[in-house]
Amino acid sequence: MKNKNQYAIMTGNEACAHGAIAAGMNFFAGYPITPATEIAEIASAQLPKVGGKFMQMEDEIASIAAIIGASFAGAKAMTATSGPGVSLMLENLGYGIVAEVPIVLVDVMRQGPCQGVATVPAQGDIMQAKWGTHGDHPAIALAPASVGEVYTETIRAFNLAEKYRIPVMILSDAMLAHMSERIRIPEPGEYEIANRKRPTQPKDDSYKPYADDGTGIPPMAMFGDGYKWYVSGIIHDETGFPTTNKPEQIEIQIKRLLSKIENNRDDIERYEEFMTDDAEILLLSIGLVSRSSKTAIEQARAEGIKAGLLRPITLWPFPERRLAELAAKAKTVVACEMNEGQLYHIAREIVGTTPVAQVTQNDGKILSAQKILEKIRGVRS
Predict the structure, then answer these.
(1) Tag placement on the chain: N or C end, fewer CB within 10 Å?
(2) Distance of CA 292 to CAs 301, 350, 365, 373, Å?
(3) DSSP secondary structure string for all residues of 312-357
(4) How many helices (H) and strands (E) does the chain have?
(5) 3-state DSSP call for residue 162?
(6) CA angle, 80 as apex, 25 and 360 as ends, to 5°?
(7) How many C-beta atoms surround the C-beta of residue 22 within 10 A?
(8) pLDDT by residue (tens digit) across 289-329?
(9) Are 28 and 77 contacting, i.e. CB atoms less than 8 angstroms apart?
(10) Could you read off the pLDDT of 47-70 as tens digits, one per residue?
């Protein structure tokens, strides 16, 4: 895995597990669920080889609780599940956000709602990745579109979690998880490895675990290394203790949680543009659907239709500014997705007066280039 210019045939789930280990993952806890189970299986086999730990938990709630605890103890920790499992994890996801715990949660999306259809892909968890847990809170979610990108975006997910002390989600899907592609394995040293900031002050009562050091991201001590600190899921002040009767402190902490992401959008946001320079019809899609969109754009261009694509790779925070800029130059924006219009509703809030159309498919099959091309022709006429 470490030879220069080494290539491998991998599935998306294999790329996710190996990318996590390349990022420094040394703890995985999970519960079997289609179509994500292979990630846990690979982690169980590979982590002991690098001194890591694997735990199969009794359910999804215990899985996210375990990785939160492991992260407090200094581990780089991950779990993997699908939509029904994410639903069970959301309370502890909120805990991880307010306690500022760096973890990675992989959601291999499948048809929903509820148990849905376990073995087919969908893109119905876009809103859940942002708004699933309650309250005003930040979110980072990444949406790779190829097996190779699953590998590199998993590394980036760990880096973002460590830099910003936040749970980070990766949205794959059942097709991407199980399809095989040839990918290049990056050599160690080619990619960034980020680690959380550690406190440097004395290990005495002066230590405040949530004190802002000027970056909005407090340094994080490790349980057992001598610092005393209090952690809970309640809004707190710099000491970690609740601020129930201190409205001004509540607002300060909520705004800091949000601003540490908003103030670093340039580092966090990543997107791809395809033929957008003169695009009159702008497609908006993520994941595998973006690949169908590119084919449709090439076919439309052959017919003289100026189409282009904006693909959010960082799904949350959403690349609002760039979408607004491109939409202002376009005649129509078309959201292409495997759900009933989640990207469509996001786009309508952002693009102003530019018309927004949609093409959806929600039957467990990949949205085809032909169907997208037909929509492009329709909105042009």
Answers:
(1) C
(2) 14, 24, 12, 9
(3) ESEEES--HHHHHHHHHH-SEEEEEESSSSHHHHHHHHHSTTS-EE
(4) 13, 14
(5) helix
(6) 130
(7) 21
(8) 999 999 999 999 999 999 999 999 999 999 999 999 999 99
(9) yes
(10) 999 999 999 999 999 999 999 999
